[in-house]
């Protein structure tokens, strides 16, 4: 007795497996959202690792750079997570004016920035460091604190705060 598997069956099995993986990833994001943003009245960000995990799941599969922010109240209650800018495979244009305007619209008192490096390297570039300083200075003018800037790539996300860069 012999079995013949044609290419179309193998290809359709791969497509089903890929769809199942996507479903698992979406479920993981939903669970992390529930854990991090569990209270509609404003959950507190008191678990930095959960925030990094959430941002990693949100950004790691993006083919191009995406710059986003978690906007918070003065007590670090979450107001919103928003992807603010989309770029190319190795850069994105970020405009401090837009970030400040959005923080004011949400009446945010604090923010955590995030973006991913499609290359996989999580080390911040000199442009990343400069941008973070620009945003920090612009937001300080309107009393919004920058708590962290997290870079997502291969492996553990890079935290500006944990590395002493803020």
What does this protein structure show overall?
A five-stranded mixed β-sheet has the order 2-1-3-4-5. Strand 3, helix 4 and strand 4 form a beta-alpha-beta unit. It is an alpha+beta fold and 166 residues long. The chain is globular, with a radius of gyration of 19 Å. 40% of the residues lie in helices and 20% in strands. The mean pLDDT is 85.
Provide the fold topology:
Elements: H1 7-36, H2 48-59, E1 66-72, E2 78-86, H3 96-105, E3 110-116, H4 126-140, E4 145-152, E5 158-159
Parallel strand pairs: 3-4
Antiparallel strand pairs: 1-2, 1-3, 4-5
Low-confidence regions: none
CATH topology term? Cytidine Deaminase, domain 2
The CATH homologous superfamily is named Cytidine Deaminase, domain 2
Treating each run of at least 4 consecutive H or I residues as one helix, how many helices? 4
CATH classification, class level: Alpha Beta
In helices, the fraction of residues equals 40-55%
**Number of individual domains:** 1
CATH architecture: 3-Layer(aba) Sandwich
């Amino acid at each position: 007795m012999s079995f013949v598997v044609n290419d179309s069956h193998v290809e359709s099995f791969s497509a089903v497996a890929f769809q199942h993986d996507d479903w698992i990833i979406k479920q993981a994001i939903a669970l992390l959202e529930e854990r991090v943003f569990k209270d509609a009245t404003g959950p507190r960000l008191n678990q930095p690792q959960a925030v990094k995990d959430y941002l990693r799941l949100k950004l790691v599969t993006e083919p191009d750079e995406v710059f986003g922010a978690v906007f918070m109240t003065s007590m670090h209650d979450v107001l919103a997570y928003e992807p603010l800018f989309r770029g190319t495979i190795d850069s994105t244009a970020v405009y401090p004016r837009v970030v400040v305007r959005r923080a004011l619209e949400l009446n945010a008192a604090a923010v955590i920035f995030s973006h991913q490096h499609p290359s996989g390297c999580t080390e911040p570039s000199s442009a990343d460091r400069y941008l973070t300083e620009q945003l920090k200075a612009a937001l300080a003018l309107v009393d919004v604190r920058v708590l962290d800037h997290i870079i997502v790539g291969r492996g553990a996300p890079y935290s500006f705060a944990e590395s002493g860069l803020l």
